[in-house]
From TrEMBL:
InterPro entries: DUF1028 (IPR010430), Ntn_hydrolases_N (IPR029055). Coiled coil: none annotated. It comes from marine metagenome. SUPFAM superfamilies: N-terminal nucleophile aminohydrolases (Ntn hydrolases). Pfam families: DUF1028. This is DUF1028 domain-containing protein. Gene3D superfamilies: Glutamine Phosphoribosylpyrophosphate, subunit 1, domain 1 (3.60.20.10).
């Protein structure tokens, strides 16, 4: 039993509940069909989502017929980044150029951005 104790202890510790402290987003487009998808995990609490109008209001940017983007981690409460992404995507701006524009945000290093359009850029 002694030799199995470390493995049993490690297994038990992995089952303990803990609070998430990381975020991720996946965005994709099917350039043939025009379908877009966004999936993400966030550390924003359920209450935080309700008071902000849901996940779409703080993270997802969907521009029908153009593409999809994600903006999360250090949340921009002004929504300036989301609006910049939305407007530039509507103007058919290359996603790399949009990211360069976003890099002027003083909190750029604390944020996560992903942008893809139906041109596959």
């Amino acid at each position: 039993m002694k030799r199995f104790f470390p493995a049993i202890l490690a297994a038990m510790l992995t089952l303990l509940p803990s609070q998430a402290a990381a975020t991720w987003s996946i965005i994709a487009v099917d350039t043939r069909t025009g379908l877009v998808v966004i999936a993400s995990a966030t550390c924003v609490t359920a209450e935080g989502l309700r008071t902000r109008g849901g996940l779409k209001s703080i993270q997802a940017i969907v521009v029908p017929g153009v593409g999809v983007a994600a903006a999360q981690a250090g949340v921009d409460r002004t929504r300036a980044n989301q609006m910049l992404i939305f407007e530039e995507m509507r103007n058919n701006t290359d996603p790399d150029d949009i990211l360069r524009m976003l890099s002027t945000d003083e909190n750029f290093q604390r944020r996560q951005f992903g942008i893809v359009d139906l041109e596959g850029r």
